[in-house]
Amino acid sequence: MMVKALLAKWRYRVTLMALFPMIVGYTLWRAFKGGGRTYALQRFALGIQSPVRPLWFHCASVGEVNAVLPLLKSLQKQHPAQTVLVTTNTPTGRDTVIKQAPSNAQHCYLPLDYRFTVRRFLKRTQPSALIVVETELWPHLFLSCFSKQIPVVIINGRLSQRTLAAQNWLKQLYRLSLQEVTAVLARSEEDGQHFMTLGAPAERVKMLGNIKFSGQPPASEKKPARLIEQPYVLVASTHQDEELQFAQCWKKYQNKKSCQKRLLVVVPRHPERGPVIRSQLAATGITVQCRSESQVVNADTRLYIADTLGELKTLMQHADLVVMGGSFIPHGGQNLLEPATFGKAIIVGPFMENFAEETASLLAHEAILQVHSVEEACGQIEALLSHPQTGQQLGMAAQRFMKARRHIAQQYLDELTQRLSGVGVTFK
Fold first, then answer.
1. Same domain assignment for residues 189 and 254
2. Which of 103, 139, 322, 346 is least surrounded by Cβ atoms within 10 Å, i.e. has the fewest?
3. What is the pTM assigned to this prediction?
């Protein structure tokens, strides 16, 4: 077993070094596309600004940041002097941290998983502990933390089928990465079992539930000002090809009585795709406007591309109903809990593997609709707009579901405090 582990570590290092030119190129491309100079530097652990001995939370992107926000806010209330560092992999995750995280939290990009970048990062930040949100298992990151006696806790732990089906040498790396974790706080019994199968010690694994159910601030709070005056249907977090499918389908429905006065607003998961999407949709003959180009919605506009950062939540709150993108292609879906918090009628497609538990729970409570195709989704949109009471009932059921689970974030904080205190981490 020891030989296999050493070979796996060697293979991982050789693979990373072989890919180094491509990874550098991709990092610079991402910086050019929106991350900027800060992204390029910090991915190589340069230009790091960090508080003193922070409690370090790592969130891959926006979804993980939103999931952990209630916990971060509770942490600040209970330990106002505690410094916090939040790392993400993406500029959109960074923007969410800066705009919504409590004042004691500072952002930095996670360094690439090379030993020299990770070690430089740890030397600069000197975190008291690392809390990984959900599913990121970076071998050099975990092993470097273990070597420096930095406790590692995974919260809201989940593992994708891709991780579980990884090649044997990668599973050896995952086993090494999990054997010394302080705790794995899993979102479900199934996920907890998956972590134990990969190598996490059974006595350190505990199921607490899905922290994403803690949701965002209650929808009863004052809504932000509308960004679009016309009533609209929102298709949120779309991926390539979904925009074209919805544009073609919406064109068929735009003369239906219930749809005539409704705008279709599409929010791409990656806003930089906005101009490309507009070019693709030109062939459909539907009138399209682009928010990033400051184009004004007029009486002829039938589809509006909201290709900007930080406005999805506001758009959700004022939408007549919400369709979740990423679920009509084999992507695995996007987080449907935020519109549920706002009490919106929600439609999802057939591909919700990454949010299987959330989807199953909301379906069981008759709080969402799941369809098989974009065509069926447009049919349901037309039906819900024609019978608004049905949509209101769906939204109310979703909101009740979320309200009943707001306590989960506090449970995570209590367990996190207990586990870290047990290994000598002092909260300020």
1. no
2. 103
3. 0.73
